[in-house]
Design goal:
alpha+beta; Helix Hairpins; 6-stranded antiparallel β-barrel; 4-stranded antiparallel beta sheet; 34% helix; 34% strand
Length: 465
């Protein structure tokens, strides 16, 4: 019987310890069974600072020229001469390419001959018309003296109408022939291709001796070369859909090239697309944004990739804290006065109570006489390192900024101590390093306890007890 009761009593005792340890005391969230006093958490502190803060939006993009012209032929022909090469600087009106013009010169000569023939025909028709008018006048005089018949008078009138029609026909044929001649002359002029802009020959895609063709609805024409004006460059950036509502034309930008990421190039937002697009095989929606480069920088070349930082908001002389100092906590983990302050603020902003209760609270912990005190804060814009505080803290407050492992454990009234300088250097590299250091500290702080199996003396003492 005793063999059964002893194990049962031990099981009941262990269960009671677990139950009591699970009970929490007030808002401290500490166990009622205080087995050991927790050590003070090492923390780093600083004070809020008044300084300007700038919010930026980053977007990748490609550098291109604002003005770039593809040179194509408007008439099909063989390239007879190409006096420029890739990389050459050209001026507006400079010869780029000369096509074979034998066929087009023949068409011009034929058109000129046709025009002259029609002009001669019109002169002949005018003479016939004049003769018909004289004959009709004579017949009318004879008819007054009854010296001619009515039939002959009618025939002369018909002949006059035919002569007038011949003159009109020749005139219209001449107009048509002159139009064909102008077209032939234009086609002849198109065999000489000149540069429409000042720039450089950035790409040559045809060679002397090749036959170039004009484009149709289904087949593109031959592109002979590309002329680029390097005097004005732009970046065609891709802004994420979450950031595009903040981007507006006219905002200033910093453009960073992979070849020189330390020296930004000034730019300005020129235009933001009204509809988004998806890259092939990706679900990310981006909006094409044109950023004009405002400086003539020799480092900028067409086709380069670039990263654009767009300044979407700026505030001067505002209260700021490091971004890591702002943490988020559940409502149940904070004092009632903090929660009530948050609810009042949300009500002023028109947020429903149901939605407000589902939100995490943004708080900043301050150091007050060796303890951590949470403050409900309202934040504004932020950059990569600091965030604006609209309300919730004073300039002289000592706020806790790290390390991460301590910030994650902070509660109302948590015991804290200033971290050593050497420790602060180790804990500024991020959350992963802090976690690793915490595990190492726990292993070093754990005392070595001899178990009865490892220490015979301890086994004897246990039996004696």
């Amino acid at each position: 019987m005793r063999r059964i009761l002893v194990p049962l009593a031990l099981v009941a005792l262990v269960a009671a310890v677990f139950v009591v340890n699970g009970l929490r005391e007030g808002n401290t969230d500490e166990s009622l069974l205080h087995v050991a006093t927790p050590d003070a958490l090492p923390v780093l502190v600083t004070q809020p600072q008044r300084e300007p803060i700038v919010r930026t939006v980053q977007a990748p993009g490609d550098v291109e020229a604002v003005l770039e012209v593809e040179i194509s032929s408007e008439v099909p022909a063989k390239i007879e001469e190409m006096p420029v090469e890739e990389g050459d600087t050209v001026k507006s009106g400079q010869l780029l390419c000369r096509l074979n013009d034998v066929e087009y010169r023949a068409l011009v000569d034929s058109g000129e001959a046709g025009v002259e023939a029609l002009r001669a025909g019109i002169r002949q028709a005018d003479a016939d018309l004049e003769k018909c008018q004289r004959d009709l006048t004579r017949q009318e005089r004879l008819a007054e003296r009854n010296a001619t018949s009515a039939l002959e008078l009618a025939d002369h009138r018909t002949t006059l109408v035919k002569a007038q029609a011949a003159v009109d026909l020749g005139t219209h044929q001449l107009a048509e022939a002159q139009a064909m001649l102008r077209r032939a002359r234009e086609n002849l002029e198109k065999t000489i291709i000149v540069s429409p802009i000042d720039g450089i020959v950035s790409k040559v895609q045809a060679e002397q001796g090749e036959v170039v063709v004009t484009g149709t609805m289904n087949n593109p024409g031959t592109v002979i070369m590309t002329i680029t004006d390097l005097a004005q460059m732009q970046v065609r950036a891709r802004v994420d859909e979450t950031d595009v509502p903040l981007v507006k034309p006219g905002q200033s930008t910093d453009i960073f090239l992979p070849s020189d990421p330390q020296r930004p190039i000034l730019g300005r937002v020129l235009r933001v697309a009204t509809s988004g697009s998806k890259a092939a095989g990706r679900d990310v929606v981006t909006f094409e944004t044109l950023v004009l480069i405002e400086t003539d920088d020799p480092r900028v070349k067409p086709g380069m990739t670039a990263n654009v930082e767009i300044e979407v908001a700026r505030k001067d002389d505002v209260l700021t804290v490091p971004v890591q100092a702002v943490v988020h906590r559940k409502r149940k983990d904070l004092p009632e006065e903090i929660v009530e302050q948050f609810d009042r603020r949300q009500a002023e902003l028109g947020i429903t109570e149901r939605k407000s209760k589902a939100q995490y609270l943004a708080v900043v912990f301050s150091l007050d006489e060796g303890e951590a005190t949470p403050h409900c804060v309202r934040t504004g814009i932020a950059d990569e390192a600091r965030v604006e505080l609209i309300e919730g803290l004073a300039v002289d407050d000592q706020i806790i900024t790290g390390p991460y492992r301590s910030l994650d454990q902070l509660k109302q009234g948590s015991k804290v101590k200033l971290d050593e300088p050497e420790d602060s250097e180790k804990t500024t590299d991020g959350a992963e390093e802090d976690t690793a250091l915490a595990d190492a500290d726990d292993e070093e702080a754990a005392p070595d306890v001899d178990t009865p199996d490892d220490n015979p003396d301890a086994t004897e003492v246990a039996k004696a007890e």
